[in-house]
Amino acid sequence: MVNQKGILKALLCLACAVTLMTGMWKAGIVEDLISKVSTPLNTPPPFAKGWEEIYFKEIGSRIEGTPILPLRSKPMSPKTKEVRIWIGFGHQSLKAIILENNNGDWAAKFLPPVDKASELLDKSYITVMPKSGWATFWTKLDNLNIINADGDQDVIGDAKGLVVEIRTGDSYRNYMYNFPPDKSQEGLKAEEICNVLSSEFDLSFH
């Protein structure tokens, strides 16, 4: 006679094992995508690119008086990872998504424009989650080469811009995209990033 209880127990154990392995596999994908940063950060890097001083002055003003510290110089443990995507600049109100990984768990914060931030008690951020889940969300960003892109080299007038900062442990890098009227390939890629963020977080990044 077939031992139905034994079979049921075995099936339950198998289901638990598959669930655990699937979770580990998805976490591994995300870890691989974000572990590509290679610039040492023994001391906070200087503003070596022409656009950095302009854009990071605005970023500094936006996070002043909030719990958000500058990414290139904030204290971080070796296993902590963080990606910040800033959109606006020039005549556009600055907003951002901050993606943080602490001990393998991802979390996201939305920094609204200053006029919207005034509606918040601490004028800083709102906690959000990607609708499709972290693994799918990161796959979308990786398809846009968000970790390793070179970006544009110069700011085009008062054009809207997008800045990406990446920090993992003691490594840091950044790059920026313009949103030029001529719809260059780089500008189109910036729009695609905004499309992903808008869709995943039900917020406007355009």
A few lines on this structure:
This protein has 206 residues and is of the alpha+beta class.
Task: Write out key terms for the chains shown.
alpha+beta, 206 residues, 6-stranded antiparallel beta sheet, 37% helix, 6 strands, globular, 5 helices
Structure description:
With 206 residues, the protein is an alpha+beta fold. The protein has helices at residues 4-34, 50-63, 114-117, 134-143, 185-201; strands spanning 81-89, 92-102, 105-111, 126-128, 161-168, 171-178. Strands 4-3-2-1-5-6 form a six-stranded antiparallel β-sheet, with helices on both faces. Helix 1 packs parallel to helix 4. The protein is globular and about 40 Å long.
Distance between the termini: 65 Å
Biggest sheet descriptor: 6 strands, antiparallel
Q: Percentage of helical residues?
A: 25-40%
Q: Tally the helices: what do you get?
A: 5
Strand percentage lies at: 15-25%
Compute the CA-based radius of gyration.
20 Å
Average pLDDT: 77
Structural class by helix and strand composition: alpha+beta
pLDDT below 50 for ≥5 consecutive residues: which ranges?
20-27
Global outline: globular
The string of secondary-structure elements, in order, is HHEEEHEHEEH
Lateral strand order in the biggest sheet:
4-3-2-1-5-6
Total number of strands: 6
